[in-house]
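**User:**
If convenient, please work through this fold.
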Amino acid sequence: MAINLVKGQKIDLTKGRSSLSGIMVGLGWDPVATKKTGGFLSGLLSGGGGADVDCDASVLLLDENGKLTAKENLIYFGNKKSKDGSVVHSGDNLTGEGEGDDETINIDLKRISPSVHRLVFVVNIYNAKQKKQDFGMIENAFIRLVDNQSNEELVHYNLTDNYAGQMSLITGELYRQGAEWKFSAIGEGASEPDIGSIANKYS
C-alpha cells in the first residue's frame, strides 16, 4: 500500500527494500472545470482566453552542491534522456485530460551517476506568460512513485495548496543519503514561467 505524504514529509525509499532498482515517477493534473457563465464575451475577456492549459513535467539532476552541471541533465519533453541514461521521460501530454498519470519519468536507480545527488521534479505551464495562465487553473495535481518491477505504488503525494498566480510547481525531490535514496514531498509554487528559467536557479 502506498504511503500518502503531506507537504514537507520525507520517506526512505531503499532502506529495507534492497531489491528496488527502478521506479516510475508519475505526475498528474486536471484543468479546472470551466464555469459556463458570462457568455461568449466573458470567455474572450478573461485571462487565458479559454485555451487549454498545457502542463509539462521535468526533472533536474543536481550534484552535491545542488547545481545542474550539464544541460543533458535537464530532462523534459525536448530532452527525454539524461546524460548517464538513468532517467527517461515518456513524452509530452498537451491537455492533462483523463484519469491517472499525465506524464511519466522512468528512473534506473542503479545507473544514476555517482555525481548526481538530487533529482528535483517540476511541473510548469507551457507558454504560461503569453497565455496568462497559472496553477489556479489546475486542480488534482499529484506526484507518485511506483516500483517498476512489482508495479507497487510506493508513495503518493497530492498537492493541495492554492497555487493561484504561480506558473511552476516544485513537486518533490529524490535525494541520495549515503547508500540510500529518499523522497521529499515539497509542493512549492514558483513564479518562473518556463523550465529554462527554473534551470537557471540551479546553474
